Amino acid sequence: MSGLDSVQYPSSNLQGSYGWTDTLKGVYYGPGSLATALPKLLQTLGGTKALVVTGRSLHDKTDVVKKVENVLKQHNAYGGTFYEIGQHSPVSGIHNGLKAFKDASADIIVSVGGGSPIDASKAILYFYQQEKGGDYLRQIAIPTTLSAAEYTVGAGYTNEEGKKVAVSSPQLAPAGIILDAELTLATPDRLWLSTGMRAVDHAVENLYRPLVPPPIKYLCFAALADLFEYLPKSKASPQDINVRQKLQIASWMSLWPLKLEKYSALGLSHALGHKLGATYSIPHGITSCLTLGPTVALKAQVASQEDKEWLSKALFYLREQNTGSLEGDVLKLSGLINGLVKELGLESNLEEYKVPRTDVPKIAELAVGSKDDPTFPGVVKLLEGLYPN
Fold first, then answer.
1. Residue limits of the Alcohol dehydrogenase iron-type/glycerol dehydrogenase GldA domain (predicted)?
2. How far is the C-alpha of 156 from the C-alpha of 141, rounded, in Å?
3. Do both 232 and 294 map to the same domain?
């Protein structure tokens, strides 16, 4: 068992509990849904003045933010736009966003973009609550990628030392989510497809994540089926709105909102991604392309019998034949993941991102928690395999 897994809690028991996040009041989906969904959510949440939080590229190079601003203006709820959120949500941008939120006298945030502005908005609301006290104010998330940050209660951001840190509270989960595929058309193909692989990462790692109830795992099987089908179709036909909408829904299924009684991390691929992403400026979608297939291959050696069974079942939903052994099935799933990365044109290696080979033991230790963890040698070997021969 890896140190990332809980000894006390197997990935799925025949007893447990399931709860929806207390915060989430509605998910609206469909092409063109922005115009009707945003006013409904503002009314439901009692938001009177919204600060739009986004990134510079989306603000400067597309009309997506303008569309959101126009809906807010039509309902006299526009309080300004803050667009200094960079990749991995640097804390300097969060502090500036907090100042903008207060200067606007806003009472709600509308985040637009990928995981960085959505997580940064959570952090802004976290620091605002720490300063002002009382209940957390709310966020409406309008994602334009498939990274699924809108379904979680935590916010990862990069501190002054370049390290990924996090804040978490059930009340930080976005209170409203709008999945409007029309707003994703301007998302660069590489970002769109790589965050789709991030959704694949969510769906796979939820199969061995502790405390996830069985019905959620079956949603993950459905997510995998759709992601494997529609990501290549989206690459072939980037303007197909229906395919993009199906991918947004698949991303939702890959990380279905949960109210867990105890925190449980997703898994090794995500842990490696968190250590690689901020430190070496690798987008999280790309870290999933790098680490997920090899992580699943390692699971064929080190996972529990139950976790291997869940991974093996994924083959049925991908319309693939079983191999005759659990270990063989898990290795086959690893190969299918690597094949999808290649099909989407997302192959890369750590050398391309200037990750020194000498850093490998440190990255592995940070990901598993200790050099004494029994999986540590396997994780070192996994990372070494991410360099060209």
1. 27-180
2. 16
3. yes
The confidence score (pLDDT) of residue 91 equals 83
Q: Which residue has the tokens 């099987």?
A: 221
224 within 8 A of 204, measured Cβ to Cβ: yes
Characterize the bridge pairing of strands 154-158 and 164-168. antiparallel
Q: How open is the CA angle 65-66-68, to the nearest 5 degrees?
A: 65
CB 79 within 8 A of CB 145: no
Instruction: Report the predicted TM-score, pTM, of the whole model to 2 decimal places.
Output: 0.92
pLDDT of residue 195: 98
Q: What's the Cα-to-Cα distance from 367 to each of 3, 134, 149, 375, rounded to whole Å?
A: 9, 35, 20, 10
In angstroms, rounded to a whole number, what is the distance separating the alpha carbons of residues 174 and 140? 6
Quick one: DSSP state of residue 274?
Answer: H
Average pLDDT over residues 155-171: 80
Domain of 103 in residue numbering reads as 26-184
CATH code of 344's domain:
1.20.1090.10
Average pLDDT, the chain: 92
Q: What angle do CA 325, 330, 336 make, to 5 degrees?
A: 125
Q: At 178, phi and psi to the nearest 5?
A: -125, 115
Residue-wise pLDDT for 289-313, tens only, equals 999 999 999 999 999 999 999 999 9
Q: Which of 304, 329, 326, 325 is nearest to 315 (CA)?
A: 329
239 and 108 together in one domain: no
- The percent of residues in the chain predicted with pLDDT above 90, rounded, is 81
